[in-house]
Design brief:
Layout: H1 13-23, H2 30-59, E1 69-72, H3 79-86, E2 92-93, H4 97-101, H5 109-112, H6 114-120, H7 141-145, H8 153-157, H9 162-171, H10 177-197, E3 202-206, H11 214-220, E4 225-230, H12 233-251, H13 261-280, E5 288-292, H14 293-298, H15 300-311, H16 316-329, H17 342-351, H18 353-359
Parallel strand pairs: 1-3, 1-4, 2-3, 4-5
Keywords: Plasmid, Transferase
InterPro entries: P-loop_NTPase, Stf3_sulfotransferase
GO molecular function, one term: transferase activity
């Protein structure tokens, strides 16, 4: 039986076939899912082509995308909580679940099927207890994995080449210049459609992958603003290990037991976070702001106001009631509890020493 609601069901046929060929195809239970994804892609192809033609015609008479506001930070650092709060400000456009699930068809077929898709949404995210609703803001990486062979999610789907897909999808390691440019074109096409769906508002983007790509985002939008939320690296480590294990068990179309998830997290966190530090070092104060997760969790309204003031964003007072309403609605949220072993703590303290000193518990 196919895996229910696998993200690849929103892929296009060319991307899917490219990914299958590059990664050796699925194994065992993965075949029904891959065939279902291919059937979905072929069935949607006429609608996807029609939508692409409509967007291209519209592009000739429309203005370009305004610079987004990016939320940066490693996975499990509080990026989702910050995104959920700030997205309540009506000045921002968001990536909604329908754009993620059907990135090729969000404006046409996706709009028609929206009531049906809304009923099919999972009650909560795979990796934690965060509710998923029709207006819940989402990160765009799953959408981009459905549009490009370059995404770390392909390592989760096809873990026999896990490390290769991670390095390509996080840092473009091993990618040709043409592959890099193709990813950028798909990224901008996706955001162009999101902008149409969101009425041309400034898009609020949250994707931990962009923590390693600030330089590229600045090339595209020299005036973009960035918010970095950071958390005690020890908590990030144990929660990210859980993140990978949960998604591999849920989404992998090949065996994944060979992956040393702890080693993966230990190796990639320093590279991602050092890239973020290096690529934001010369940004002025009104273009880059940081907030510790621990402080945002304790005083979200005060910290949100500080972020607006630092980045010279308008509209905090007008958005405050919406922030308060959302925070009141999630006040009983129960976080997943992950216990870090003494050995794990020692490894993190040793291998991530500069980041523990910078962002560890008690520093903020």
């Amino acid at each position: 039986m196919p895996i229910p609601d696998h993200p690849l069901y929103g892929c296009d046929a060319i991307t899917l076939l490219t990914v299958l060929a590059r990664n050796g195809g699925p194994r065992g239970r993965g075949w029904p899912t891959a065939l279902a994804a291919l059937a979905s892609a072929l069935g949607r192809a006429p609608f996807s082509l029609a939508e692409a033609g409509w967007v291209a015609a519209r592009r000739r008479t429309s203005a370009g995308l305004p610079p987004p506001v990016f939320i940066l930070g490693h996975w499990r650092s509080g990026t989702t909580h910050l995104y959920n709060v700030l997205s309540r400000d009506p000045q921002f456009g968001i990536i909604d679940p329908f754009a993620v699930g059907l990135p090729w068809d969000m404006l046409g077929l996706g709009s028609v099927l929206r009531p049906l898709l809304a009923r099919a949404l999972p009650e909560r995210r795979y990796i934690d207890n965060v509710p998923v609703k029709a207006d819940s803001p989402q990160e765009d990486e799953i959408a981009l994995a459905n549009m490009s062979p370059v995404s770390f999610y392909h390592g989760l789907y096809f873990p026999e080449r896990f490390d290769e897909n991670l390095r390509r999808g996080l840092y473009f390691d091993g990618c040709t210049a043409a592959e890099r440019e193709a990813w950028k074109r798909r990224f901008l096409y996706f955001l162009e459609k999101v902008s149409i769906a969101q009425g041309g508002r400034c898009i609020l983007l949250k994707n931990p992958v962009y923590s390693a790509r600030v330089a590229m985002m600045r090339e595209i939008w020299p005036d973009a603003r960035f918010i970095h939320i950071h958390r005690d690296p020890r908590a990030v480590f144990v929660s990210t290990v859980g993140f990978y294990r949960t998604l591999l068990a849920r989404l992998a179309l090949q065996p994944h037991e060979h992956i040393d998830v702890e080693r993966v997290v230990l190796d990639h966190y320093p590279r991602i976070m050092q890239a973020l530090i290096d690529d934001t070092a010369d940004l002025p104060a009104n273009r880059f702001a940081e907030v510790p997760f621990e402080r945002f969790e304790r005083a979200p309204l005060e910290e949100a106001e500080r972020l607006y003031q630092t980045l010279e964003l308008p509209g905090f007072a007008a958005a405050r009631p919406a922030f308060e309403g959302y925070l009141g609605a999630v006040s009983g949220y129960a976080k997943n509890r992950h216990r870090l072993s003494d050995e794990g703590r020692e490894r993190v303290d040793r291998e991530w020493a500069p980041f523990v000193a910078r962002w560890g518990a008690g520093v903020a």
